[in-house]
Amino acid sequence: MTDLQNNQNENKSNISKMTSLNKETNVSTNCLKTPKGMRDFGPAESLIRKNVMKKIITCFERHGATTIETPVVELMGTLTEKYGEDSKLIYELKDQGGEMLALRYDLTVPFARFVATSKIQFIKRYQIGRVYRRDNPAMARGRFREFYQCDFDIAGIYNTMLPDAECLRIIHEVMSDLNLTYKIKINHRYILDKIMEFCGVPESMFRTTCSSIDKLDKMTWDEVYNEMVNEKKLNSDVAEKIKNFVYKNGKEDVIFWLENIFKDYKDTKLISTFNDMKSLIQICKDFSMDHCISIDLSLARGLDYYTGVIFEAVLVDTNGIGSIAGGGRYDNLVGMFTKKNKSVPCVGMSLGIERIFSVLHKNMKKEKKLRQCTTEVCVVSGQSNMFSNRVKIVSKLWDNGINAETPYKRNKKLLDAFQYCENEQIPLCVVVGEMEWNENSVVIRNQFTREQLTVKIDDMIDTLKNLLNKPNV
Amino acid sequence: MTDLQNNQNENKSNISKMTSLNKETNVSTNCLKTPKGMRDFGPAESLIRKNVMKKIITCFERHGATTIETPVVELMGTLTEKYGEDSKLIYELKDQGGEMLALRYDLTVPFARFVATSKIQFIKRYQIGRVYRRDNPAMARGRFREFYQCDFDIAGIYNTMLPDAECLRIIHEVMSDLNLTYKIKINHRYILDKIMEFCGVPESMFRTTCSSIDKLDKMTWDEVYNEMVNEKKLNSDVAEKIKNFVYKNGKEDVIFWLENIFKDYKDTKLISTFNDMKSLIQICKDFSMDHCISIDLSLARGLDYYTGVIFEAVLVDTNGIGSIAGGGRYDNLVGMFTKKNKSVPCVGMSLGIERIFSVLHKNMKKEKKLRQCTTEVCVVSGQSNMFSNRVKIVSKLWDNGINAETPYKRNKKLLDAFQYCENEQIPLCVVVGEMEWNENSVVIRNQFTREQLTVKIDDMIDTLKNLLNKPNV
């Protein structure tokens, strides 16, 4: 090829004659950035993300989960009436003939639609994908408009709390695998509703009152009280009564305390809910993870679709990151997509993987540079007439499953090539020299020890594989 | 937990009282489907896709490529004026305050924007991601509105055709790894333009005439001739002249033939282009893949951004699938995103992975059922009072990195559990029985041979790992 730099001017004039490409240069240079709240990830960040995702997938598969994929775009009607106050954050597409579309807001509602569409009765699946929220981005705190979610869900009718507990266990395993210290708050939607009823909250205000209480992890009681009484017009006596409940947290003791308060309620569903919560704690004990969990009556979670157990994991000793995983039981969501509301009960959890990345990224900056390059062998030469032979050698390495490259330039200097290998931490070089080539040989050089040995080309692959400790690929 | 089926009615009335969830059931049940041209992938399909992608990534990394990620959404201005006649297929988002946004149309333009944004001088990267086209879907032929692309690109200034040839080599390796038979057509934009000039096509009609010629793989000469002369108003003599070129294909012989035709042109760029094409063929020979390539003067490729070599791979012996990979050199695209048009030359290729999936899917249907389940050990019991002990055992397996599950029901019958393992091809069971438990033992059962052995719980992990041939995880 002619030197591209020299040809650039000529090239440009030809191209602008032929196409309209360069006319719009002004438009394009204004577009040097990504949309608000969205990001590029370069090789180093992508590698960290890839490694974290691999650990998470390993954990999901340890639990026998399969994976599915649903579109990033859904019909608008699929998403409406599922997210409560958050619905205003849904990203809509332009109507381009026929369908009202939106970008998915989470992976849970699409999963429920998938279960209904595919008429599935039971499935344990994970899904990793991007979701979209037209939120006010706060990049420093890991809040974006486009971000990954990692979800694990179990759909099916079972008579134990084991699926619910397994979601907690997954959080436990992922956090442990990533060396993060965390705790999980647990609550139950039905208990929350009964507390509302007990305190005298009007039924129509159950959800909005809960969503105020849910802010207690970020706001003081006075602020929450103010929101409930002055903004949402809740009776002040009622708000005072709620205070007795929301600071309660612990394990079975909280359930015993509630059982006592509600002992005159002849509500069989409430009784079985209390028993469910005790079973859940028992299974967490059998999982040796009960030290990480606590019942927390202020936890409410905003999304409309939850019907049973709800939970949220927060990091300990990491200020400002907030919840890092959350989930719960949503027994009626699939039914909303089926005729006659034929329900498939579900429970699941979602990992806030972007927040995990931002924590790990901070930790990693303290450590030494990550090797980004996957190349194991670099084929180099000091002589420009060896170009074709370098190409033949690198081709042979690829044929044999060795990660390899050779400089693209015809006359790359040997010392520059060695320097490149050192920077990129490429362990081995094959040096192609005219003298050796005439004897069907090449030199293999260890970039770390600088040891060199001359081998016949026929023995080169075996020698390299031995040096790389690589079995047949 | 109380039996969910029995509680469903009660549940429903409570929920509908509390939230507005069920009011909109009619909306949701109409939304049982995915948007037009988009699809769900269940566990079996996802597994095939995952395995294919793994092979492709292995190949990309064999060539020392890193990976990056860019947003699915780009500023509209980033995408305008890059795709020629295809621009009408870009998916736009609703203007929701401030930014005009669109879903990405390919991964090439976002890559060029990324290179410009990050001020990168050289990079070899791959990217796998979904792209969006408001095209008329033809699902049976593998044409969708949302689909994956797998791209491999090399950016940087080099004085050989090696980067261009490496793209062809990557196609070769992926096709070979997937046991597909293919051939690659190669052409060059500058040669095409000189042919247009030679035949007397007006400069303003170069691109649109090329895009007609490009249809020769799907249309007859008469249809293409008709489009050029009657629709696009090209002079009929000119069209006749073009015919002499477009059926020409071969190797160096085509270049020699062209050199002869253009021998009186004193165009140094054309001379160096011919030399480039001969170098490219030589490198393909050194790569032992020259039998798979041919220069084909009818190949044009529609996208505006190509400036040099262009290529397209088609499957041999698979009717109707069309091109399965394509790409080329685009030396000015990065420059469109930088001030003063500071260019970074690029060459790259994109794998039509959906078409590959649809071919592999057809082939695979002939073969036996794929194992979808990742579970290696199922913990079962014939007694319902062993539920808590099953939970303890499965927890121990997870702790030791063994893929395991236990039935969610308290009283799952032993034979049903064995049947489930057989269906899912789960190789091992741990049977928890009361008698063995009292002696700190469990039974390990091989589901294929039906052999059973009783082991102490302390020895269970080692025994299972030996049976699974699994080193310490």
UniProtKB/TrEMBL annotation, chains A, B:
InterPro entries: aa-tRNA-synth_II (IPR006195), aa-tRNA-synth_II/BPL/LPL (IPR045864), Anticodon-bd (IPR004154), Anticodon-bd_dom_sf (IPR036621), His-tRNA-ligase (IPR015807), HisRS-like_core (IPR041715), HisRS/HisZ (IPR004516), HisRS_anticodon (IPR033656). L-histidine binds at D106, L107, T108, R133, Q149, D153, R301, Y305, Y306. Keywords: Aminoacyl-tRNA synthetase, ATP-binding, Ligase, Nucleotide-binding, Protein biosynthesis. The keyword DNA repair does not apply. Residues 48-360 form the Aminoacyl-transfer RNA synthetases class-II family profile domain. GO terms for molecular function: ATP binding; histidine-tRNA ligase activity; RNA binding. It comes from the Eukaryota. Its EC number is 6.1.1.21. It catalyses: tRNA(His) + L-histidine + ATP = L-histidyl-tRNA(His) + AMP + diphosphate + H(+). The keyword ATP-binding applies. Gene3D superfamilies: Anticodon-binding domain, Bira Bifunctional Protein, Domain 2. Residues 1-20 are annotated as: Disordered. One of its GO terms (cellular component) is cytosol. GO terms for biological process: histidyl-tRNA aminoacylation; mitochondrial translation. PANTHER family: HISTIDINE--TRNA LIGASE (PTHR11476:SF7), HISTIDYL-TRNA SYNTHETASE (PTHR11476). Belongs to the class-II aminoacyl-tRNA synthetase family. This is Histidine--tRNA ligase, cytoplasmic. The lineage of its organism: Eukaryota, Metazoa, Spiralia, Lophotrochozoa, Mesozoa.
